[in-house]
Design brief:
The structure is a single chain. This protein is 42% helix and 26% strand. The protein has 4 helices and 5 strands. Strand 3 and strand 4 form a beta hairpin. The chain starts with 7 loop residues before the first helix and ends with a helix. It has 2 domains: 1-43, Irregular (HU Protein, Chain A); 45-103, Irregular (HU Protein, Chain A), CATH 4.10.520.
């Protein structure tokens, strides 16, 4: 199983190659997209990227936990976390389904 990581630099390079913008403009576009997503999530808004998935913020309640080093019980405080739910298109591609075969 290949576990390659896609970085912002990879996204910038893809914009540069596929759209033909300069690297600085490609970098600015990628940065703006991430900034917009981050701002919306900070405002606890849901971010839907059609064909990719949905990012949303949800609250986790405080709960008992354990210090892994000492084994001592601790209280894990409540916090907000970002969750991702993949779109059916992404799930289909992950499960080996191909849109061309359905036609």
């Amino acid at each position: 199983m290949d576990m390659a990581t896609t970085t912002k630099a990879d996204l910038v390079e893809a914009v540069y190659e596929r759209i033909g913008l300069s690297r600085p403009k490609s970098t600015a576009i990628v940065e703006q997209v991430f900034e917009m997503i981050t701002q919306r999530l900070e405002q606890a808004e849901t971010v839907k990227l059609s064909g990719f998935g949905v990012f949303s913020v949800r609250g986790k309640r405080a709960r008992p936990g354990r210090n892994p080093k000492t084994g001592e019980p601790i209280e894990i405080t409540s916090r907000k976390v970002v969750t991702y739910r993949a779109s059916p298109l992404v799930l289909g591609s992950q499960n080996g389904e191909d849109d061309d075969e359905e036609a």
